Amino acid sequence: MSVAAWALHNMLEPLPSNTAHLCLTCTCTCLVQAAILLVGIAGYALSIFVPISFICILPYEWLRWLLVAIATSTSGLFLLTNFKAPIFDVAGAK
Asked: Radius of gyration of the chain from Cα atoms?
């Protein structure tokens, strides 16, 4: 549990309504889990640039730009495939 979630949890401890306390605690926990998931997906999307950075040592400028373009499109497609379903769920099918 993060420090912010812990602090919010402890501030709501003296409240008489356990229902509101439980709902807010669960909401904070879900938000923290969603933030961790977003950071993880973003990290995996950027991981393609690690091997590309080593390959960019080659002295060919056109090859460097081509590899960066391929890595960028691969990273973008990875993000699109992972976020397509949640975006369509929120926006609704058309």
From this structure: 21
